[in-house]
């Protein structure tokens, strides 16, 4: 009996009755099969000695290539323009490559122009050509640009196998790009042949398309693998467009953030998660995401809130980003949004209250505040202290049963829930999150997760009870992930019958959640109480202690990683660089990469996001300055100014062989060697081609 890696086998295994059992290791499926049967199956895919040898040579060649570049980004928070710019410019990598090749040959202006063409090919080429007057000038521009972009592309793809590059080529121009990229430099008389190709393309008016095709190959391959360390959703306007971009073919994985899990919970049928999603969208004036991007009607909520909440009582619920505008329609919209925010906030507190009461083990009683309201005095008692309320109008709260939804509220919740359960586009996106995502990831010795591993003050792992069983450390995160997956799989069961949903919601704001990592979420206090002391959320000890190397080592070991080699990579908490905070903690063993793509946080970080790069030379942290606009990038060729700092330097250039992929390829080579041996000693017979 032997264990084989899924990679090769999956395509050759037609019938699973040969599989004795499946095991998982590091997220990779391993099947235990009968060895002879396995080799027989493998021989269907590699039916001759020549085929087998060729594949071994191919895999060996791949393993000797430099390790591909990993890009880590996090806390994108709907900021599509900034994110797509960072993806297009490869976190500053494209400019660096342009400099490496063209320094001394092109002026800075020409290099900036070429970079902008690579980022926004169609738009930039149109802009340039519109300013040229003669046909000669236009042809000259195309010829020069195609030649330069070919050279740049050849440089970018030089670390990949031809087969990988081929797969990344757009079908329309694959043949031409391949010819130009893999030029035959020995036969010098072929230069004429290449010039001819370029001239023909230009004379056929396809210059722009060819340039765009090259630009997309460069964009795609300059960022080989993306890790999104959580929080694609909330606060910014276009999380849906970010997901569409991520779905566009880049190799990537996602470590879910608390905001992503909130949307996943809503799509799984959790009414409490849904209420939070709507409340946050209203608070940031982003309800279009729900209505337009996902086609979920908010009409029931709007009608209800107009009926129940009067004009002069919605001030605390005004959207957070509310530009000064005299536009009457806009003011009317803001008024409606504030009322919807008010209605859904109360619904949220009621739904959450019911969950908290069902689960004393959540230890969230401190968040039960609806029953602490004194309706006659207009006050609320928090932690034994009485505070005046900013707004004391609660028409739907029955003081004798404060957490009960009114009949109308129930109706609103049901109608909204139907919308969340039936939005095709939302489910397409959420399924993408599930298929590419996980709560944590072990990748090339590093451990990636959005928030924290919850710990107690004495640095022991914090325990949590789920379905009457206690978990902590890695086991807790595994159980949380299982809950999230099962919650979604059982979404047809509905809010009341899906036994996973309360635990899904818990991960949004529970104190032992690896995504939240604070003692409580003070949403009620932020909305209703002036005194800022009540708004404070105490962070888990993890955040105070993560500069501590011992703690980092303890966590890496808990997750089965070599603490001498690995790093922990987190998002979630904006790094306040402008107040002296360092994103590198514990001597660079732990790296926090929430640099504030979210506009709402840029004032505290002084930055507009980080990207962490991990290539064959080591790790570098890139900080990005705020992105102004696509127009500015196009017309003024302004780029996000990025500064780099070294996190780790490899003594020798790292190859694919030393990575997780290399490990899998080595296993595949071993399998193929076994197949070859079977051919050589006659246990298997080669297929004879006719
Ligand atoms: O400032 P906002 O957007 O109202 O959000 C505040 C809430 O967001 C949180 O910071 C969680 O979101 P993050 O994961 O983006 O930090 C809560 O701790 C806090 O209650
Ligand atoms: Mn977060």
Structural description of this entry:
The chain contains 28 helices and 20 strands. The protein is α/β, with parallel strands linked by helices and 690 residues long. The strands form 5 sheets. A 7-stranded mixed sheet has the order 10-6-5-4-18-19-20. A 5-stranded mixed sheet has the order 11-12-15-17-16, with helices on one face. The chain has a 3-stranded antiparallel sheet with strand order 1-3-2. The longest helix is centred in the middle third of the chain and has 31 residues, at 328-358. It is globular. The two termini are 35 Å apart. Residues 258-259, 283, 518, 521-523, 537, 572 line the site of 1,6-di-O-phosphono-beta-D-fructofuranose (FBP). Pfam families: FBPase_2 (PF06874). Keywords: Carbohydrate metabolism, Hydrolase, Manganese.
The coarse overall form would be globular
Provide the helix percentage: 40-55%
Low-confidence stretches: 1-20
Strand content: 5-15%
- The radius of gyration computed from the alpha-carbon positions, rounded to a whole number of angstroms, is 28 Å
How many strands, what sense, and barrel or not for the largest sheet? 7 strands, mixed
List how many beta strands DSSP finds: 20
Strand order of the largest sheet: 10-6-5-4-18-19-20
The ligands bound in this entry are: 1,6-di-O-phosphono-beta-D-fructofuranose, manganese (II) ion
Q: Which structural class should the secondary elements be placed in?
A: alpha/beta
Number of helices: 28
| Alpha-carbon distance between the two ends | 35 Å
Mean pLDDT: 90
Q: What's the number of structural domains?
A: 3
GO molecular function, one term: fructose 1,6-bisphosphate 1-phosphatase activity
Organism: Jeotgalibaca porci
InterPro entries: FBPtase_class3, Metallo-depent_PP-like
Family: Belongs to the FBPase class 3 family.
């Amino acid at each position: 009996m032997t264990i084989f890696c899924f990679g090769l086998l999956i395509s050759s295994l037609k019938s699973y009755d040969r599989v004795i059992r499946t095991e998982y290791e590091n997220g990779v499926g391993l099947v235990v099969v009968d060895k002879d049967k396995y080799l027989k199956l493998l021989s269907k895919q590699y039916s001759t000695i020549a085929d087998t040898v060729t594949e071994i040579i191919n895999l060996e060649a791949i393993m000797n290539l430099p390790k591909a570049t990993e890009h880590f980004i996090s806390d994108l928070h709907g900021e599509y323009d900034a994110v797509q710019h960072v993806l297009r410019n490869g976190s500053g990598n494209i400019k660096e490559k342009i400099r490496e090749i063209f320094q001394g040959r092109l002026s800075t202006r020409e290099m900036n122009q070429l970079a902008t063409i690579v980022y926004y090919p169609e738009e930039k080429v149109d802009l340039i050509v519109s300013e040229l007057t003669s046909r000669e000038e236009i042809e000259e521009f195309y010829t020069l640009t195609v030649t330069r972009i070919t050279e740049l592309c050849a440089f970018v793809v030089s670390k990949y196998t031809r087969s990988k590059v081929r797969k990344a080529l757009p079908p329309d121009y694959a043949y031409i790009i391949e010819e130009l990229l893999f030029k035959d430099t020995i036969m010098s008389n072929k230069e004429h042949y290449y010039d001819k190709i370029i001239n023909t393309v230009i004379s056929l008016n396809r210059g722009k398309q060819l340039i765009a095709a090259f630009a997309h190959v460069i964009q795609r391959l300059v960022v080989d693998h993306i890790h999104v360390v959580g929080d694609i959703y909330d606060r910014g306007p276009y999380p849906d467009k970010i997901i569409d971009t991520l779905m566009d073919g880049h190799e990537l994985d996602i470590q879910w953030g608390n905001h992503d899990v909130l949307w996943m919970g809503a799509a799984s049928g959790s009414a409490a998660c849904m209420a939070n999603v709507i409340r946050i969208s209203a608070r940031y004036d982003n309800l279009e995401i729900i209505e337009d991007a996902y086609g979920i009607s908010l009409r029931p909520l709007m009608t209800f809130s107009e009926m129940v909440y009067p004009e002069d009582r919605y001030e605390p619920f005004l959207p957070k980003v509310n530009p000064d505008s005299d536009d009457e329609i806009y003011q009317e919209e803001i008024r409606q949004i504030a009322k919807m925010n008010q209605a859904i906030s109360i619904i949220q507190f009621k739904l959450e209250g019911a969950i908290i009461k069902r689960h004393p083990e959540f230890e969230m009683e401190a968040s039960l505040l609806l029953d602490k309201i004194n309706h006659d005095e207009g006050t609320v008692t928090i932690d034994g202290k009485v505070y005046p309320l900013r707004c004391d109008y609660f028409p739907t709260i029955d003081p004798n049963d404060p957490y009960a939804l009114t009949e109308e509220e129930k109706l609103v919740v049901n109608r909204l829930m139907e919308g969340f359960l039936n939005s095709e586009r939302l489910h397409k996106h959420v399924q993408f999150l599930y298929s590419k995502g996980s709560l944590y990831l072990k990748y090339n010795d590093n451990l990636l997760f959005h928030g924290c591993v919850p710990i107690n003050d004495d640095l022991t792992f914090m325990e949590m009870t789920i379905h009457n069983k206690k978990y902590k450390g890695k086991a807790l995160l595994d159980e949380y992930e299982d809950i999230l997956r099962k919650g979604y799989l059982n979404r047809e069961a509905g809010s009341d019958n899906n036994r996973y949903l309360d635990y899904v919601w818990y991960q949004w704001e529970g104190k032992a959640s690896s995504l939240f990592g604070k003692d409580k979420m003070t949403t009620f206090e932020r909305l209703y109480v002036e005194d800022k002391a009540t708004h404070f959320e105490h962070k888990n000890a993890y955040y105070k202690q993560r500069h501590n190397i011992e703690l980092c080592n303890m966590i890496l070991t808990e997750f089965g990683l070599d603490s001498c080699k690995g790093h922990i990579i987190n998002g979630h908490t904006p790094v306040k660089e402008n107040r002296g905070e360092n994103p590198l903690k514990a001597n660079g063993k732990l790296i926090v990469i929430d640099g504030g793509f979210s506009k709402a946080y840029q004032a505290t970080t002084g930055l507009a996001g980080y990207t962490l790069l991990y290539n064959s030379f080591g790790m570098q942290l890139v900080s990005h300055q705020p992105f102004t606009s696509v127009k500015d990038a196009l017309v003024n060729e302004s780029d996000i100014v990025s500064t780099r700092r070294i996190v780790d330097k490899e003594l020798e250039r790292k190859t694919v062989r030393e990575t997780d992929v290399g490990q899998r390829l080595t296993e595949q080579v071993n399998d193929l060697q076994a197949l070859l041996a079977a051919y050589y000693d006659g246990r298997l017979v080669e297929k004879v081609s006719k």
